[in-house]
Amino acid sequence: MALYVQKYGGTSVGSVERIEAVAEKVKGFREQGHDLVIVVSAMSGETNRLIQLAKSITDEPSTREMDVIMSTGEQVTIGLLAIALEKRGVPARSYTGAQVSIRTDSAYGKARIQHIDDQRIRQDLAEGRVVIVAGFQGVDDNGSITTLGRGGSDTTGVALAAALKADECQIYTDVDGVYTTDPRVVDTARRLDKITFEEMLEMASLGSKVLQIRSVEFAGKYNVPLRVLSSFADGPGTLITLEEEDTVEKPIISGIAFNRDEAKLTVLGVPDIPGVAYKILGPVSDANIEVDMIVQNVAADQTTDFTFTVHRNDFDKTKDILQRICAELGAREVSGNNKIAKVSIVGVGMRSHAGVASKMFAALAHEGINIQMISTSEIKVSVVIAEKYLELAVRALHSAFELDKVDTIAE
Amino acid sequence: MALYVQKYGGTSVGSVERIEAVAEKVKGFREQGHDLVIVVSAMSGETNRLIQLAKSITDEPSTREMDVIMSTGEQVTIGLLAIALEKRGVPARSYTGAQVSIRTDSAYGKARIQHIDDQRIRQDLAEGRVVIVAGFQGVDDNGSITTLGRGGSDTTGVALAAALKADECQIYTDVDGVYTTDPRVVDTARRLDKITFEEMLEMASLGSKVLQIRSVEFAGKYNVPLRVLSSFADGPGTLITLEEEDTVEKPIISGIAFNRDEAKLTVLGVPDIPGVAYKILGPVSDANIEVDMIVQNVAADQTTDFTFTVHRNDFDKTKDILQRICAELGAREVSGNNKIAKVSIVGVGMRSHAGVASKMFAALAHEGINIQMISTSEIKVSVVIAEKYLELAVRALHSAFELDKVDTIAE
């Protein structure tokens, strides 16, 4: 007998038939005696339909009014799911973000949750009802409707679980859990039973698009056990939780993330004087271009090569900016490469284990793969390589760290 | 410089193009210096789409959850209209029924407005904004979303006008006013400049479907000047208002209403004893059949013929009921006719003028039209005739009462 907050995304509620399937699933959990709070997204396609309506009036609609329009998508789903549950004899009641008092700031379109009043939900649960809450939305201090931005329904789920001190926040999606790496690249990729919040954050930010990053941060901050499961298949999914105490039995790394969305730019022969990094990255940031990895090496001749990566879509724009400021920097030249890929090993286990990075480099060298950039954090090592070697590198690392074996024990 | 509440119905906001046309219209009024509160319906077709979604789950969805779903239709329109106004440089802000605090009872699907908090709207108006309110919806004391039932947006408009003491509530629709009769039947039918609330109520209940009856009642009760105008053409429309003082200049009748939705049933040879009307109409009413006109005549032989009309769809069902109780009533037989029509003349002028009914009967007799039933109220005379004479009767009466002439003066 537990209290679960379950979130079902747009694909899981994409049609009346799928909403009925969710209702069946929820009924099953209810019959096991669990208390349930269900968070739903808009039916898939609906949010885009609403955006198109508004955009056909103007390219720059007021963000406040966009939120008024967009929030209707989830509102339709909550009503339909409540009806589908009641049809099955399961008492249910739906609430919009405003009704259940999910208070946010007034940053329309990307609002942040500040407070949730749990009284109404607790009362419904006590009276035996399943509570259904519209994801992705809230209300500001003026009573205006706000939305949390794309993927915000995950955040709604986690925030509700935190407010209600739920036993678990379960995110139902179209994958059955978090994998050691992408199964389309490595066929021995294995579903992880558990992963830590920190690892999940690194995996998510590196391109494993299972969960919205904000929801993982939120879950970590409030220590809400988070589980990713499939809406369409049975199975335990992956539990995302705090780091365990017994690190001895932790695998060194949990997974391999990668992406091919980035491009690399280098300013060669920059005078190695204070403030040069700012002089290079200032204009880039002013153009609203996000920078990911940054590497700087000092050469013998008092000059340095400054390399960083940006999203591949921003490659040409960034190159233009750098070429414009090259002369005033006193730099020799600008070079770039948009045929790169980033591969990362992630795992809290590497904190207590030396030699993880060198094992990674050895595995890549063994396959003849040249490393162009290296960046490390406490629980991750990332390298940039030529894009053509991406699959080869991921498979080599997956095998080198024995990720296809269950319960890999630290060496 | 006035305060107008303007209501635009589903056809007027049926597409993004039409919403932009409404925005143009509103901008024009704003430029004349008027304060404006705009009430909108769902885009035409949207409410039916939402009903279909819910009905595909169950034929009897919870009324509370239906209201959660249905209210999204208007919510999309208010956001789109606000965006269209802001695009034109007209400051605007949208509100759902709940946000602007349109308090209703909890009769989901047919809720009644109890209170409106006008503070927020007044503040926006004072700050120079056009206020846009979702029609058809409100919120009950528990914070649950309610809807007022079909046509409820008219009621929202009138209620807002009453709360704000607006100079006029203007209902924009696809007709350009209230006519002396249906222009498709009488080509000299004339748009009325003015009509009283009472006359409008009689016209509306008799089948002139320009305004929802409840909104007219509401306007009469709170003395809100109500104007019906066309969304698509310019023109003054028809003002619905309190009876004027100078009845000398009132035309005797204002219009001719008719409908062919009814059927007539007669129980012949009923013993003329107390309680017989109840014995006949009790079982009919128990079957949820609404009765309109009722006529009873006493015959010489201590029996009576009891005649009444019902909606044509209920004809067979009613006949079955009557045949079942015929014997226990001691009645001779049951007869019925569903090829009838009801024609009514309506006008407050007839209060102070004798001979209106006889003039009506003379005009019908002149055309050889037999009158099957007669029913009168203070400002209306209705007759039932054979359906085939309907158009002939309406034209004859329109001409007899000189409705095609402007400002007909009492004889």
Automatic annotation (TrEMBL), chains A, B:
GO terms for molecular function: aspartate kinase activity; ATP binding. It catalyses: L-aspartate + ATP = 4-phospho-L-aspartate + ADP. Keywords: Amino-acid biosynthesis, ATP-binding, Kinase, Lysine biosynthesis, Nucleotide-binding, Transferase. Residues 265-339, 345-411 form the ACT domain. The keyword Amino-acid biosynthesis applies. Its EC number is 2.7.2.4. GO terms for biological process: homoserine biosynthetic process; lysine biosynthetic process via diaminopimelate; threonine biosynthetic process. The keyword Transferase applies. GO terms for cellular component: cytosol. SUPFAM superfamilies: ACT-like, Carbamate kinase-like. This is Aspartokinase. It comes from Proteobacteria bacterium 228. The lineage of its organism: Bacteria, Pseudomonadati, Pseudomonadota.
